[in-house]
Write a structure and sequence with these properties.
Number of strands: 8
Number of domains: 3
Strand order of the largest sheet: 1-6-2-3
Largest sheet: 4 strands, mixed
CATH topology of the largest domain: GIY-YIG endonuclease
Radius of gyration: 24 Å
CATH class of the largest domain: Alpha Beta
CATH superfamily of the largest domain: GIY-YIG endonuclease
Distance between the termini: 48 Å
Number of helices: 11
CATH architecture of the largest domain: 3-Layer(aba) Sandwich
Length: 246
């Protein structure tokens, strides 16, 4: 007996995975209205330290609209089908885009209406549906509030800080050496942001809990004393401060 919800596309029989492959392209269909979602999923996650199995067995797609419908009407009203498996990431991404384009997931509409026939809002992981909502001030405001809410959660911030690649010296060095950090115009522009000039914003920054910690302030002071100012802007090399603190 399989321990996942995937079927072979068009055959209504249990899908038997080949775990020697890299991943698969799938289609998830809402059985009530026929609306579908096409995407891809890999079997394993890889990083510099280890590899581990992904959540492919219970995966239900990356569309928030699809997830919302699954939550509201129940998973039993959706069909999860595998279109094909592929041996490497390049092939997987190519065929994900191929099937998304083949079925016109961004432009197809449901029969008799203007509603999109697919939950997809982008194809190939980068090309977005040109919808007005992205320019809507209310939409952008909502997105900003969601981001602020996430970063205000201590657990979420801790989880971000504990990502393995942040602990890799080579990765951190690569970040510091990015070209735009060396561009005087870019750095000047960053320093001239309006919120840096706002007294309320600066006051709020100064009231952060870690700034009140004597040990933290002493350590930061010692770091700053031991680094040079940038010869172009006259500002401290902030990225070096952050790196050394870590």
């Amino acid at each position: 007996m399989v321990d996942h919800h995937w079927l072979e596309v068009g055959k209504d029989r249990e899908f038997v995975p080949n775990l020697n492959k890299f991943g698969f392209v799938y289609i998830i269909t809402n059985l009530r209205n026929g609306k579908a979602y096409i995407g891809c999923k890999q079997y394993m996650h890889y990083n510099r330290l280890k590899e581990k199995e992904s959540d492919w067995k219970t995966y239900t797609g990356s569309s928030k609209w699809l997830s919302k419908d699954i939550e509201e009407i129940g998973k039993k009203h959706f069909k999860f089908e595998i279109i094909a498996e592929y041996k490497n990431k390049r092939s997987l991404r190519y065929y994900e885009l191929y099937y998304q384009m083949k079925y016109n997931v961004l432009s197809s509409t449901m029969e008799g209406s203007d509603e999109s026939a697919y939950y997809n809002s982008r194809v190939g992981g980068k090309f977005y549906r040109p919808v007005e909502s992205y320019q809507d001030p209310e939409f952008r405001k909502k997105q900003s509030e969601n981001a602020k809410k996430q970063f205000s959660d201590p657990e979420a911030r801790k989880k971000l800080g504990e990502r393995e690649y942040y602990k890799d010296p080579e990765y951190r060095k690569k970040l510091r050496e990015r070209e735009f950090y060396k561009d005087p115009e870019y750095r000047k522009k960053i320093g001239e942001r309006e919120f840096y000039k706002d007294p309320e914003y600066r006051k709020k920054i100064g009231e952060r809990e870690f700034y009140k910690d004597p040990e933290y302030r002493k350590k930061r002071s010692e770091i700053i004393k031991n680094i040079a100012r940038d010869p172009i802007t006259g500002r401290l090399k902030k990225q070096n401060v952050q790196a050394k603190e870590k």
